[in-house]
Model the fold of this input.
Amino acid sequence: MTKKPFRPDVDAPEYHGAYVPYDIIKEGAIAFLVVLVLTAALAIVFSSPDEKAVTIKTWSNANTVDFAQTAGDELTATSDVATYGAPYNNNGTSQHWGFLSPEKWVGVRIAVNTTNDFVINPLSDQPAQPQLTAALDQWKSASSATQGAWGAAYTKVEANLTYSNGQVHLPTTAAGPIAVLLSYETQMARSGALDQALIAQNGFYTTNYTKPLLFISDGTYFAGLATKQHLAGDQWGMMNETGQYPGQAWLWLYTFWYQVPPYNTSASGDFLVWGTMMILTALMILLPFIPGLRSIPRRLKIYRIIWREHYAREA
Amino acid sequence: MSNAQIERQWTSRLRHRVVEKLPPDRLLPDTQPAYVASWIYVFGVTTMAALGIVILTGVILALDGPQWWHSSSLGHFVNSMHLWSVEIFFFAMVVHLWGKFSMAAWRGGRSLTWVTGAVTFLASILAGFTGYVSQTNFDSQWIATQAKDGINSTGGGAFFNVLNLGQMLMWHIVLLPLAALALTGLHVIMVRVKGVVPPFEDNAEVSA
Done:
């Protein structure tokens, strides 16, 4: 029987050299104390960031027009969330690479109807007010074609929407009840009632903020705050944090792909980034089993620095 | 019951197997090979020490719920320690990983030690991420709304909803710490069973 050849990137030589004293418990205890002191010192000197969460109340009071325009997009189902596709609805094009489109395969599992969830239902729960009730009745009793025509008329003049004296004004008469609905929606938002109405859709007890977060993320106010804090996608935002803090620096490679083509130009950029990272992750995990890749450390010879004392003794 | 019967018991067999694979002097050694003499070896134990402080500060933060640290100076300080211990944890872990890569530490039947280490790294990234989206502040709102697109594109967002605070918090304080601790324990046991990888032979310039 022949002996298997020695493979230097798979097999390790038998060690017959010297052993030295080693106190593993002492090493662990010292490491713990050093890291504890270092952590406490960093916490004392640098603290940690804690920017207050944005609410729909703060947003609608800080930038009322942006809020009202976003609410109009939600009502007319033209916002980013309304046209997102899976897992929220069927109105968008799913990200894909060739025939691969897991987003589409999974389908709608967190159903979000922006028209009803963000506007009509919260307004319908308000105490009866003649003008609001009439506007809601007009919207609900209209056909989808009529609602679509009102929506198209709204989209045309959306950029010229104004807010004054507690009312939303649209320079058109073709948008049906939209201006009235947006006026009451904005009043609700500015009072804080819309925050509660969106959260309470999950019942009395809830820890699920999917709908309010989706609503807030559709406005430009939220993204503007993030850009000021260098958190936008093209600012390496995924690995940054508010203020001058290191954030999730370990996500640098994931964030890197979002800065370069084709990832930052493709409509399926997220899927391409995740696909790339999954392949790289699999390569990292399975490195010991991949010929060529597992030879890199031996060829780089950094190990000679790590074990320099050992090689000096051997020489 | 005869001795033979006792030796056939599951408990006896398991004990023999454990002692054979990991005798006490290998589990808690008092000597080590002389080649284990570099600062790079410090980063493994530093990672574990930082993990201990991450868990300790996380437990303190958990005592009064997910939001008390916003309005308490003590809570904010503990949160700061949680943040910085996480930063140290990842720094040490990444240096440890590059060190082990440079040593090709999977050699000599240590492939699974590498694999468990790499998977622990991934579990830790997920644990860190779920922590960031559970802060209940602007940072968590922004990170969650941005991250949803990536996860949704894989189909995973339908089941792992980063906008659902309750789900993220549970993963952050229960599921992922359990996974990270179990994987770390397994990783350390494998290091103790197999020992620290010996240096390359100086003339190991043969084909892989």
Chain A touches chain B through 106 residues (CB under 8 Å). The first strand of chain A starts at residue 19 and ends at 21.
